[in-house]
Amino acid sequence: MLACCVLLVAAGVAPARPPEKPADAIAALAGALSDGDAGAFLARVDEHAPGYAELARNVRALVALGPAASSVDPVEDKGDAERRSMRLNWILDIRGSRRRATILCDLERRGDKWHVTRLEPVAFFSSQQ
């Protein structure tokens, strides 16, 4: 097995990565907030998602305040290999303030990644709380 991997790497072919899980997409959202990277957060959200324009404004304003530590725990996860609906307990710590909400999140598989098609309430991600 090692010889096979060495040959693939030597030939410039990386071994295939396992497909992303929905939880990986949620972790990427939380990580982007922690890193203060609105672009990385919004890259995971479909621009046709309900409330996207407001979400984008909120996330940009939120990360402008500084990094936001996030803790996200799935409460409910339903769906199939192409679409998931999740209820998430999301805790957000920013500038000494803590907020907590149940977030409704729908995801859709596109290629080997999951993308958010709904994230509500978008007001949770506002800088004004």
- Tell me the major beta sheet: 4 strands, antiparallel
Low-confidence stretches: 1-10
Q: From the helix content, strand content and strand pairing, which structural class follows? A: alpha+beta
Count of alpha/pi helices: 4
Looking across the biggest beta sheet, what order are the strands in? 1-2-3-4
Distance between the termini: 54 Å
- The total beta strand count reads 4
Residue-averaged pLDDT: 89
Topology:
Layout (H helix, E strand, L loop, with lengths): L1 H9 L11 H13 L3 H6 L8 H13 L4 E11 L3 E12 L2 E14 L2 E8 L9
Antiparallel strand pairs: 1-2, 2-3, 3-4
Quickly list its features:
single chain; 129 residues; alpha+beta; 4-stranded antiparallel sheet; 4 helices; 4 strands; globular; disordered N terminus
Structure, explained:
This protein has 129 residues and is of the alpha+beta class. It has four helices and four strands. It has a four-stranded antiparallel sheet, covered by helices on one side. The radius of gyration is 17 Å and the shape is globular. Residues 1-10 have low confidence and may be disordered.
